[in-house]
Amino acid sequence: MILDIIISSLINGSVYALLAIGFSLIFGVARIVNIAHTAFYMVAAYCIYFATHKLGFHPIWGMLGGIVLVTLFGLVSYQLFIDPIREHEAAVLIGTIALAVALQEVMLIIFSGDFLGVPSLVEGYLKIIGVKVAYQQLLTIGMALLVLAAAWTLLLKTRLGLAIRSTANDREVANLMGINESRVALITMGISVGLAGITGAVIVPLTIVNPFMWMHPLIMMMAVVVLGGLGSIKGSFVGAYILGFAESLVVFLIPMGAYLKGSVALSIMILVLLIRPEGLFGVAFEEER
Amino acid sequence: MALLGFYLRKLYSIFKGEVLVLPSRVVVLVFSLLLLLLPVVTQDPYLLRILILASIFAILAASWDLLSGFTGQLNFGHALFFGVAAYTAALLNLHIHLPPWGSIPLGALAAVLTGLIIGIPCLRLKGTYLALTTLAFPIILSGIVFAIPDISGGEMGLSGLDRLSGSRLSDYYITVVVMLCMCTVMWKITDSNTGIIFHAIREDELAVRAAGINTTRYKLLAFCLSGFFAGISGGLYAHFMRIAGPSNLEISMSFTVVIWAIFGGVVTIYGPVGAVFILFPLLEFFRFWPEYRILMFAVVILLILLYMPDGLFPWVRDKIETQCPRCKIRNVATRKTCRICTAPLD
């Protein structure tokens, strides 16, 4: 029971952390609230399903192809739909909502609303104190942590990461220092969508693929981002595991928990915001005027 | 009799001087008259049903504009007010058999109360934080609704409410008249002193505070007002559809409201109303190709946004009217000089 809770909260937490970091990256750099972020995650899951079931590739190739395709697709849709209206925040908002809904409908038309599944990369399970832990679950956690570490290194140790962080901090000054701001935004969009694609790839063997699978992660991702503080990578990381743990705890311990898991996690977010309005690790910026 | 004639002449001159001079006002007038006179031409129940629903959602979209457009408090969870009012009206109607004229206002009051409750924690947040936090509230409530199926009806919702009135035609008149009244009231609010403070809070909250105005109180007022109007539309919806279900609380509901309002153009009130009357029938029209319906809807929105990112109606309005550079009064685009101060227009 305890082990079940820990495993499921680690998986949920890692997924939310990956999504939230991508979301808060593009928000920080380009001030784009990308509602379609988890829709890209859904598209990645479908790409993998298509590659493994319809084309008969090995899941690994399906996953790599899915990630690359989704990243390219994200960049194209950024250039086509989001970049021209970037200065109008409200328009970007409904632009991305419309994009997410359009993707959902396209998937609904191509694959119908059936619940689909993808085989695990590795079969079998490990017995730890009498509890079955599938290798796939361990693999998912491991891969998620690896990707998180890679994203962390990219942002904190490389020149590109420095450019991204400085653009997020102050767009105008970064521009004055010779950083090509619109190119950084494009690259960040690529990284952000790529992270969404990777999230889809690592979670797809453990979850059900259907066109509405983007809704719940979207809400949780936003809650994580707000809880951790917008633009704070560390905050997203910690917030994701807090909410992931809360969700698993509710599902396993409370009757009717499956219905209440979202409610409890979001209530935690609101409680934290009552005490710290800028989130756990957010920095209270001076008001922009 | 002479007095009556005097008032009629005065009314006519006001009408001529204030309404007929601006095409946008003429359009609003013609639109309201068309809505009111439509049943004379046709009483097709399907058409009336579409227009009834459009009227109900027009109130909802305009109330979102009041809060998020005018005051700038981005609310992503507008379905909360709608759903709370719908459920309250349904519970009151089913358990203590309150007729619609009692349950709808009480439902709206419940929505006002919700506005107060969520307003207090939310007022400490700004901008995107606020938007993302408000998204959470309807989802919390729908979780609770699923968890107590005995009271809330769970997934099926509460059905079997009283009809709004006896016939489709009187339903139509009730909703259309309520819509027109509510939208006029909202437009008047935004035109009043309170409305100017709302504007100012959106533009520069610090300056408003510096002017000695308690912005928290006004933001809370905006939450309550918006909750009230959204609540009226929620109650009307529950009684018209005769069901209050968890679908009223879904995120797609909140998002749809945002889409309507921004598509029509925020900070206008008439924008969201017009957008609902265009987009809602459009969605029904696309029903001929059921699989592609929502996809086409989304694509239309994406394409229109690329060309008019400020919304449809402000774009149209700028085409047919110009603002006088000296006295800021609006004029028909065809005029060479301002109608008030005769300054040349370019």
Describe, in plain words, how this protein is organized in 3D.
The complex is a heterodimer of chains A (289) and B (346). Chain A has 289 residues and is an all-alpha fold. Helix content of chain A is 73%, strand content 3%. In chain A, helix 9 crosses helix 10 (233-253). Chain A starts with a helix and ends in a 14-residue tail after the last helix. Chain B is 72% helix and 3% strand. Chain B has helices at 2-19, 23-41, 45-70, 79-95, 100-122, 127-134, 136-147, 149-152, 168-191, 193-203, 205-210, 215-241, 251-264, 270-285, 293-307, 312-320, and strands at residues 158-159, 243-244, 321-323, 330-332. The longest helix of chain B is centred in the middle third of the chain and has 27 residues, at 215-241. Chain B is globular. Chain B starts with a helix and ends in a 14-residue tail after the last strand. Classes of the chains: A mainly alpha (289), B mainly alpha (346). At the A-B interface, helix 4, helix 9 and helix 11 of A face helix 6, helix 7, helix 13 and helix 15 of B.
How far apart, in Å, are the first and last alpha carbons of chain B? 46 Å
Taken from the alpha-carbon principal axes, the silhouette of chain B is: globular
Structural class of chain A, by secondary structure, is mainly alpha
Q: Give the termini separation of chain A.
A: 52 Å
Mean pLDDT of chain A: 85
What's the total count of β strands of chain A?
A: 2
Q: Tally the helices of chain B: what do you get?
A: 16
Evaluate the radius of gyration of chain B: 21 Å
**Largest interface: pair, residues per side:** A-B, 49 and 44 residues
Order of helices and strands of chain A: HHHHEEHHHHHHH
Could you give the order of strands across the largest sheet of chain B? 1-2
Whole-number total of structural domains of chain B:
1
- Work out the helicity level of chain B: over 70%
CATH architecture assignment name of chain B: Orthogonal Bundle
Helicity of chain A, as a percent range: over 70%
> In the CATH hierarchy, what is the class of chain B?
Mainly Alpha
User: What is the ordering of alpha helices and beta strands of chain B?
Assistant: HHHHHHHHEHHHHEHHHHEE
**Count of DSSP helices of chain A?**
11
